[in-house]
Design goal:
With 572 residues, the chain is of the alpha+beta class. Helices cover 61% and strands 13% of the residues.
Length: 572
């Protein structure tokens, strides 16, 4: 899979670069700018219009119209008759965005996801073309400019000396701002990835990768044949039946706690869950002692496994007896059927990282569960473990296809969809909020370059009188801005990775200085911050930082290129 992915990526990059090179060679820059604005505007208009919300389409179009008229008013005040490229681009963008208004009206309040997918696909294809084709060419051109006059001058301007010490300080602040943004984003996202992985591992450890039900809501008969068919499906490593019942336990002192009684196969449950690893000290062999044994009163008492929190609440320990109460199926009374009582022996205690498991779940063998529920030789479902839980949905589909109607398979992601969606939403929002730090740093780069141009106006004028073109001046300050962004990004990536990998040490120092346990294990189930660095996320952060740094150079570099040498040297 990695080889195919790498080969496809290589082919994609090669094709994108070839296409971009041909476009840049045969299409004039002005036409290319118009086409890019039109494509992006139409893609957004199509996507926003498919949502059937007129405001989402009309607001950006109105803003583009306002910008176009503002540029037109500025041109009129300056006395120019022909509109500039910025005014034309703003007008074209307004027209492209306005194309989504009739689309939204035609939807009549009903969204069309397929139509929105076309718009998203168009915008994504354009972004991929820029990322895979234009960005590598730009990077190659940037590196190829080393040794040129523009590179030499930009390097000299990077850290000004003598009279421009203040500009050097501002430049350092820009570098620190970019580095801080990259550092914080990498660290925060890595910690959130660590939390998500911990919760996922705990959920998967307490639940099987997927569960097979009868789609009609009936118990499964002849379940051994079903298990045999499931085991024949590729990538299935284990299958174990279970039977659920609702009840209450009564402790020795009269404590009443609601519980879920789950009947399991002690020999096969370890193949689909981590229950054996969750057993506490003294309960290591509890699964082998779930069969009925003689109690203190000489009656047979089946074994039961309790969660640690439930055992504390009920005030029982290993070897103690307790009564499990079923609210249904008891002897008849004048008020209806009475509750049914059954005595169990605590065979062991388990502890997971989820209090809801430790407070509610109990485990008995299948025979005891059937007797408690007064059920026949049936089960409620079959838990299944696969070779890779990320592909559990594919295995679930294969099981459904093999078993046929009425069986239905549900994988672990479908048991807690809201939980994992909340984690993803929170990570995205944190990413967007922390990106604002880099946006502020980009504005600082703009201010720094403008101050640099004001200080170096005489130098720019002399360069232009010596033959330097406007493009040369633009490249000087563009290179300087990119160097600021590149230096800040490199420092931020190094700091982010270094701090993330040393989070336990950082946490220990904070706790030593403050004397506060910042991550109590009895609340969060782990004492140190989990983390996992995602190379893909790091690459996205680096790309955003460099795009912001490069974009911040556009306005100042154009301002410096338009400087009139006569006006700049008038006071010299």
């Amino acid at each position: 899979a990695w080889g195919l992915f790498a080969a496809a990526g290589f082919v994609g990059v090669a094709l994108a670069q070839a296409g971009v090179a041909l476009v840049l060679r045969f299409v004039p820059p002005r036409t290319l700018a118009y086409a890019a604005v039109a494509v992006l505007g139409l893609a957004f208009a199509l996507y926003a219009g498919s949502l059937a919300k007129l405001g989402f389409v009309a607001a950006p179009a109105a803003l583009a119209v306002v910008v176009a008229f503002a540029l037109r008013a500025r041109r009129k005040r300056a006395g120019f008759t022909a509109p500039g490229i910025d005014e034309r681009l703003a007008g074209l963008l307004a027209l492209a965005l306005a194309a989504g208004i009739p689309v939204a009206l035609a939807m009549r309040g009903t969204s069309q996801p397929l139509l929105g997918a076309y718009g998203a696909l168009t915008g994504g294809a354009f972004a991929a073309l820029v990322a895979l084709g234009l960005a590598p060419l730009a990077a190659a051109g940037f590196l190829g400019a080393r040794g040129s006059a523009e590179w030499f001058i930009a390097r000299r301007y990077m850290f000004a000396k003598r009279r421009q010490t203040f500009i050097s300080v501002i430049t350092g602040i820009c570098v620190a701002g970019v580095a801080a943004g990259v550092w914080l984003i990498i660290t925060v996202l890595s910690v959130m990835n660590g939390f998500e992985n911990v919760w996922r591992e705990e959920i998967i450890g307490n639940r099987a990768h997927l569960t097979v039900f009868d789609g009609r809501g009936l118990p499964i008969e002849h379940y051994e044949d079903v298990i045999r068919d499931i085991r024949r499906v590729p990538d299935v490593t284990g299958a174990s039946p279970y039977l659920d019942a609702e009840g209450m336990i009564r402790g020795p002192n009269g404590e009443i706690v609601g519980v879920r009684v789950r009947g399991i196969d002690p020999q096969r449950v370890a193949d689909v869950s981590d229950l054996r690893e969750d057993l506490l000290y003294g309960s290591e062999d509890a699964l082998a002692h779930l069969a009925p044994e003689l109690g203190a009163d000489g009656a047979l008492e089946p074994g039961i496994l309790l969660g640690s929190q439930l055992a504390v609440t009920a005030n029982v320990g290993i070897g103690d007896s307790l009564v499990v109460i079923s609210p249904f199926g008891g002897p008849p009374t004048p008020l209806g059927p009475g509750p049914r009582l059954k005595r169990f022996r605590v065979a062991g205690i388990f502890q997971t990282s989820f209090f809801q498991y430790d407070e509610v779940f109990t485990f008995v063998d299948l025979a005891a569960a059937r007797d408690f529920r007064k059920a026949g030789d049936v089960v409620d479902g079959i838990e299944v473990r696969t070779t890779d839980f990320y592909r559990s949905r594919r295995v679930a589909d294969a099981i459904q296809e093999k078993l046929g109607f009425p069986y239905f398979a549900k994988d672990w992601k479908e048991f807690f969809p809201a939980f994992f969606q909340a984690l993803k939403t929170e990570r995205v929002m944190m990413f967007v909020l922390l990106t604002m730090i880099m946006v502020v740093a980009a504005f600082a780069i703009v201010v720094t370059l403008i101050m640099m141009i004001m200080e170096k106006s005489s130098d720019i004028a002399i360069l232009k009188t010596m033959g330097a073109t406007d493009a040369t001046i633009e490249r000087i300050f563009a290179i300087e801005g990119v160097l600021i962004g590149l230096l800040g990004t490199v420092c931020g990536v190094i700091a982010g990775i270094a701090v993330t990998t040393r989070l336990p040490w950082v946490q220990e120092q904070i706790e030593t200085v403050t004397g506060i346990d910042v991550l109590p294990a009895n609340i969060y189930q782990f004492g140190t911050l989990p983390w996992e660095i995602d190379p893909g996320q790091v690459a996205i952060v680096v790309a955003i930082a460099m795009v912001l740094a490069l974009g911040a150079t556009l306005l100042p570099s154009r301002h410096g290129a338009k400087l009139d040498p006569a006006e700049a040297l008038r006071a010299e």
